[in-house]
Design a protein that fits this description.
Distance between the termini of chain B: 37 Å
Number of strands of chain A: 6
Distance between the termini of chain A: 21 Å
CATH topology of chain B: Rossmann fold
Strand order of the largest sheet of chain A: 2-1-3-4-6-5
Number of domains of chain B: 1
Largest sheet of chain A: 6 strands, parallel
Number of strands of chain B: 8
Order of helices and strands of chain B: HEHEHEHHEEEHEHEH
Order of helices and strands of chain A: HEHEHEHHEHHEHE
Strand content of chain A: 15-25%
Shape of chain B: globular
Largest sheet of chain B: 6 strands, parallel
Oligomer: heterodimer
Number of helices of chain B: 8
Chain lengths: 177, 190
């Protein structure tokens, strides 16, 4: 099992009903694994679809919880800059569970000279808004990534709020950027 | 057509439907006309009405009464992605009603783009079935007409600028709104 497959497996194991994603080269293998497990291809399946921006993903997938199910968003951490108002005024304010997996940028393995400006402080920014954040990197194996993602979904449902998992793919079998 | 006249008509037409309502004056005025359990007021999530309505429509039984979004031009223009996303994901049970008064009605009546940008044509270009109205009778007829459409539907309603006076603010905990709305969803599906 690759790290990307572990993330995808953890999302489905959390009993997620629908996934929306905003593209990133790092999470593309996660998307491909999600889509394959859901019987689709070319980035789309019955329960996995692309979205154009992170704040929209929060609205579309956050609304899934209104029906008693769980939605998930797969994205890149710099996109939280687009999504903070949506996160705080919709799922956080209305106590709606939402599972978010985001790959991290701006750390080891980064090629872009400025993306660390948004990505490096993101865990602290998210925590400052009241969002719980679980961080994963090379120090844990793929099996631990799977269980952490799955438990993050369970925790989101149990605590009626979004839960964020940040994954650094550097020095794993994945691609950073 | 004043906003409150449009909302009075919509309140009459949407009793069986989940209704996602944009923030500020529109939510307040609808609640003053009729505060119903099927109303999900988005108190501060400007621009998210179409997104939330789309996600809800995708998550409910497609044969159930359509999800209705009530949006304003200023709010839609804060997140115009709603249009291509709705057109792409294409829930058959989604009807978005746009009340266009040409201004940000709750924030000093400053102008939106809608005097120069045709929002109905934007929606049509994104794949929505559209109708355009500017009267209460037209709103009623087009709404009923669009309920029969089995793809995303967009009802463009031109309204006058200005807010109704004497409408109290909606000082309600969002969790209370969510709880009442989700209970109504469960009971209506049972």
């Amino acid at each position: 099992m690759t790290y990307a497959e572990a993330v995808a497996d953890g999302i489905w194991a959390a009993d997620v009903a629908r996934v929306g994603y905003i593209p990133s080269v790092t999470v593309a293998p996660v998307i491909n694994a999600l889509v394959a497990a859901d019987g689709g291809g070319d980035g789309v399946s019955p329960r996995v679809t692309p979205l154009s921006r992170e704040e929209e993903a929060v609205g579309v997938l956050g609304a899934v919880a209104l029906t008693g199910a769980l939605g998930a968003v797969v994205m890149q951490d710099n996109g939280f800059g687009n999504a903070l108002t949506a996160l705080t005024t919709f799922p956080l304010a209305y106590h709606l569970p939402l599972l978010i997996f985001a790959n991290t940028r701006g750390g080891p393995g980064e090629y872009n000279s400025m993306i660390h400006s948004i990505s490096q402080p993101m865990p602290a920014i998210l925590r400052a808004t009241g969002l719980p954040v679980l961080e994963l990197d090379r120090r844990s194996n793929a099996g631990d990534w799977r269980e952490t993602v799955r438990e993050a979904g369970v925790h989101a449902v149990m605590t009626y709020r979004p839960v964020v998992v940040l994954g650094s793919f550097w020095n794993t079998d994945g691609k950073v950027a | 057509m004043k906003r409150i006249e449009a909302l009075t008509t919509l309140a009459d037409l949407t009793g069986r439907h989940p209704v996602v309502v944009t923030c500020a004056a529109t939510s307040r005025e609808l609640a003053s006309v009729r505060d119903s359990s099927n109303h999900l007021y988005l108190l501060d999530a400007m621009g998210l009405t179409g997104s939330v309505a789309t996600g809800l429509a995708l998550s409910l039984d497609p044969a159930a009464p359509k999800v209705i979004g009530i949006e304003g031009d200023g709010s839609l223009l804060m997140n115009p992605n709603v249009l291509p996303t709705g057109g792409y994901l294409a829930p058959a049970n989604l009807l978005l009603v746009l009340l266009d008064n040409g201004v940000y009605g709750s924030t000093g009546a400053l102008p939106t783009y809608s005097s120069r940008v045709d929002l109905q044509r934007l929606a049509a270009a994104a794949g929505w079935t559209t109708r355009s109205v500017d009267t209460v009778d037209g709103l009623r007829t087009a709404f009923i007409d669009l309920l029969a459409v089995r793809e995303p539907a967009f009802l463009y309603a031109r309204i006058e600028p200005g807010n109704s006076t004497g409408i109290p603010k909606l000082l309600v905990d969002p969790v209370t709104i969510r709880d009442r709305f989700t209970r109504w969803l469960r009971e209506s599906a049972a």
